[in-house]
Amino acid sequence: MTEVQQNKDSFVRHELRALLQAIDRDITDVSYSVEENGEEFALITWQNGYKCRINVSGDSLKALVWDTLKRI
Fold it and tell me: What is the tens place of the pLDDT at every residue in 11-61?
């Protein structure tokens, strides 16, 4: 993982998770992953097991938040 991707991972696991859980108490997990081809994803999981996978490839932190909020 590159330094930029490591920063996104930390941001998603801490700041974005806190924001999303404040908005929706049913969100149980928020994670970040990088595929072998370099594509980046945020994965949001709700208590009922529903998961939403959001492509955040190339996003700045601001764009990552915006893309995530648009999908939930």
Answer: 999 999 999 999 999 999 999 999 999 999 999 999 999 999 999 999 999
CB atoms within 10 A of CB 19: 15
Using DSSP, state whether 40 is helix, strand or coil: strand
Both tokens of 50, joined, read 């529903």
pTM score, two decimals?
0.91
Q: Crossing angle for the helix pair 3-11 and 61-71, nearest 10 degrees?
A: 50
CA 51 to chain centre: 11
Label residue 25 exposed, middle or buried (CB < 10 Å: 0-12, 13-18, 19+).
Answer: exposed
